[in-house]
Write a structure and sequence with these properties.
The complex is a heterodimer.
Chain A (H helix, E strand, L loop, with lengths): L1 H15 L23 H10 L2 E7 L4 H17 L3 E7 L2 H14 L5 E5 L3 H7 L16 H6 L1 E2 L2 E2 L2 E13 H6 L8 H11 L5 E4 L6 H13 L10 H15 L12 H9 L3 E7 L3 H7 L5 E4 L9 E10 L5 H11 L2 H11 L6 H7 L4 H9 L3 E2 L7 H17 L4 H17 L2
Parallel strand pairs in A: 1-2, 1-3, 7-8, 10-11
Antiparallel strand pairs in A: 3-10, 4-5, 6-8, 6-9, 6-10
Chain B lengths: L1 H9 L2 H28 L19 H7 L2 H33 L5 H7 L2 H4 L2 H11 L6 H8 L13 H29 L3 H9 L4 H29 L3 H6 L11 H11 L3 H31 L1
Helix pairs in contact in B: 2-14, 3-14, 4-9, 4-11, 7-9, 9-11, 11-14, 13-14
């Protein structure tokens, strides 16, 4: 029997090894204050010391984005001889896992470009270097900068931003005799009027994850409530609005399985008259369906205008080649390089002075740039993923009819309070 | 077998031969498991993953997950998923094995084709079923409508109950070939003479099935069910691609829930506690399997 037990153990080990979480080696990536702490003077002379390789991780799957990044990397590498930068693509689905595993195993790159709501979590883990004195962000929009900040210290630099607006199919709205909606009531009316045959009037990505939360939260903010006040008049009102959309039959329940990319595909295939979506879809849409008549408008509002702030941040890994990474950051965020990247990728620069010059004469982008000042950031809070999970569970329950808006809100609030309260 | 045992008894040099394999298992399989068990008794989360400030908190994680509604749900889901898949995979697989055991002309090539579901990457299968179960454009609703079985489209993947059914159906489709092939092989080991003499004695088809085939196949059937249990119990990719555990966490299995806790929500210790529950259940089933095969060898 002893032999049996050992063999059984071995067999089970083989089968379950893929499920085992991360290891527990600790301490190899503690905050790098030791070599970053001495302030401005050192920065001035840093260019002399910075040398070696800098590895970057990023997750953009779009070819144009990858090409743009590689282009500026080549430019940087050919400009000087001390630092060699190279970039590595890690799929979005694996990105968080790789960072977590890398953090506990001490195998991280020197610079990462990551989704901004996750920034605070990793900063709290201590894997990002404090670059408060090394980088000037005074020209940047507040929302993006907040997402890189934890306890008043700067742990990264906004890469670029995007936000959400309402996309609408001009032909479908015209055929239904509708104006572009500006309030929730109008949105509901127009959505109903444009729903027929295979066409749904309106949808937004409603996945039960960060992506869904990103698309849902503008409703909450528009009522004046914050992300942490779901069981408030505003939060419940937002959930009720979602419910009325579903009940009208104009909003497909299947949106709970649609990514933002799926939603865009439904829109350009003519299955959707209106959708909420982001800046980064524009280059693709202009290329794929040049003949489709679509336009954008601010997200219809309840009490106040609101949008979701998305985008990526650069973060320097603590204990890596920090000086080299900062050097590259300064290059990548400098006026012309930054402008090139932003335009190639369809992003709005987080640097307001650059953003102001970006899309002059482009009416579609102008709507996004205007919406930036109403765009709210998610978090920043290390436990944001848990908050986000509670919120996305709430609107998913409402969408599929598992819970009333009141009950869903109450449940989400209990989770949120337990997280914020336990801090 | 006996000679081998004597060899080990008199010459321990043999132990050296298993050393590389033993070391490999110890480092790459044993260590992660031990470390994962350790992790589940600590309080590792987003705040202390990298700085090493972690504390031993005993069984708190296990107490917490067992009071977590979604953990209990995923435990039940995993059991329901495994058992219902096993039953249908086995019954359909067995029927097909019996069918292809008849020596008709194209039996062999068709039996080979049957392996395709088993060979396809799980994510491909999952995507395919996701499309097929889609509410408005899915072929399954289309067929059901054409047959006038339903009037309105079923919202397969957006309703908790049917989403679970859809995932189970997809996994049954994947598992049938595994059962068919193993049972076919088992069937070929039964001597034809037994059936012939049974025919002479006047036994009918059912009597042959229950009197000869099933008793002689018992060891094969036992192995298939236990192995099938282990394979099905730890399914991850299928559910992750088809539903991501949704809608509203109704299709989470222990595997997907553990992943979600660890890598979406950064609650590493809780995630590893869930993985350990999965591990313990599989360990028990694994021991059962060893016991069965050892008894088989004795006979």
């Amino acid at each position: 029997m002893k032999k049996g037990l050992i063999t059984a153990l071995a067999a089970t080990m083989c089968l379950s090894v893929s499920l085992v979480g991360c290891g527990s080696s600790a301490g190899s990536a503690t905050t790098g204050d030791a070599n970053t702490g001495s302030g401005n003077k050192e920065v001035a002379s840093a260019s002399g010391e910075a040398a070696g390789d800098v590895t970057i991780w990023y997750y953009w799957e779009t070819e144009g984005h990858q090409a743009a990044l590689n282009h500026i990397i080549e430019e940087f590498n050919s400009q000087q001889d001390d630092i060699t930068v190279q970039a590595k693509y890690v799929p979005f689905a694996d990105f968080k896992k790789q960072l977590s595993v890398g953090a506990s195993a001490g195998e991280l790159p020197d610079l990462v470009i990551l989704d901004n709501p996750d920034h605070a979590a990793y900063a709290a883990m201590g894997i990002f270097a404090d670059i408060t004195d090394k980088f000037d962000v005074s020209n940047y929009y507040d929302g993006p900068v907040n997402s890189c900040t934890l306890d008043g210290r700067l742990y990264g630099v906004p890469f670029g931003s995007n936000d959400l607006v309402l996309f609408y199919n001009e032909d479908m709205l015209e055929a239904a005799g509708c104006e572009v909606p500006t309030t929730w009531d109008e949105l509901l009316t127009v959505a109903k009027a444009t729903t027929k045959d295979n066409v749904y009037g309106f949808a937004h990505c409603a996945l039960q994850n960060e992506e869904g939360t990103f698309n849902f939260l503008p409703w909450v903010w528009s009522t004046g409530a914050t992300s942490y006040e779901i069981d408030s008049d505003g939060g419940i009102k937002a959930l009720e609005f979602e419910k009325s959309l579903i009940e009208s039959g104009a909003f497909p329940k299947e949106a709970i399985n649609w990514t933002q990319g799926d939603t865009m595909n439904q829109f350009i295939s003519g299955n959707l008259a209106m959708m909420i979506n982001g800046t980064w879809q524009i280059p693709t849409m202009r290329e794929e369906v040049p003949d489709l008549h679509w336009n954008v408008a601010p997200i219809p509002q309840d009490k106040q205008q609101a949008s979701g702030l998305g985008g990526e941040n650069y973060a320097v890994i603590a204990g890596g080649n920090e000086d080299g990474a900062v050097e590259f950051l300064k290059f990548a965020t400098s006026g012309e390089t930054c402008l090139y990247m932003m335009n190639a990728m369809g992003y709005i620069s987080a640097d307001s002075t650059i953003a102001a010059t970006q899309f002059q004469g482009d009416d579609v982008y102008q709507v996004f740039v205007d919406e930036m000042q109403y765009a709210n950031a998610r978090g920043p809070l290390p436990e944001w993923p848990d908050i986000s999970d509670a919120i996305s569970l709430a609107f998913n329950k409402v969408i599929i009819g598992e819970a009333s808006p009141e009950d869903a809100a109450k449940e989400a609030q209990a989770t949120i309070d337990s997280i914020i309260g336990s801090k | 077998m006996k000679k081998l045992k004597e060899f080990f008894r008199y010459d321990n040099v043999g132990l050296l031969f298993i050393l590389p394999a033993f070391l490999y298992m110890l480092i790459f399989v044993g260590y992660p498991i031990i470390s994962n068990i350790g992790l589940s008794f600590q309080d590792v989360s987003v705040r202390n993953l990298a700085n090493g400030d972690r504390h031993f908190i005993g069984l708190a994680n296990y107490v917490e997950i067992f009071s977590d509604e979604f953990f209990r749900k995923s435990l039940v889901n995993t059991l329901v998923f495994t058992v219902s898949c096993l039953i249908f995979q086995f019954l359909i697989g067995f029927a097909l094995a019996l069918f292809f055991n008849k020596r008709f002309k194209i039996a062999k090539p068709v039996r080979g084709l049957l392996m395709i579901p088993w060979m396809m990457p799980m994510t491909v299968t999952a995507l395919m079923f996701k499309f097929m179960f889609s509410t408005d454009v899915g072929i399954i609703n289309y067929i059901l409508r054409c047959l006038h079985l339903i009037d309105n489209n079923i919202e397969w993947l957006t309703t908790p109950g049917t989403a679970m059914a859809a995932v189970v159906i997809a996994n049954i489709w994947i598992g049938i070939p595994f059962n068919t092939i193993l049972l076919s092989t088992g069937l070929t080991t039964i001597p034809q003479e037994l059936y012939e003499s049974a025919s002479v004695d006047g036994a009918n088809k059912w009597q042959k099935l229950f009197g000869i085939t099933l008793p002689l196949l018992r060891p094969t059937i036992e192995s298939i069910l236990v192995l099938g249990f282990i394979y099905t119990f730890k399914v991850y990719d299928l559910v992750y691609v088809m539903t991501e555990g949704g809608p509203v966490n109704s299709t989470h299995l222990l595997s997907t829930y553990s992943y979600k806790l660890s890598f979406d929500m950064f609650q590493y210790s809780k995630g590893s506690a869930v993985a350990n529950v999965l591990f313990v259940i599989l360990l028990l089933v694994g021991m059962l399997y060893i016991k069965i095969t050892m008894e088989g060898e004795k006979e």
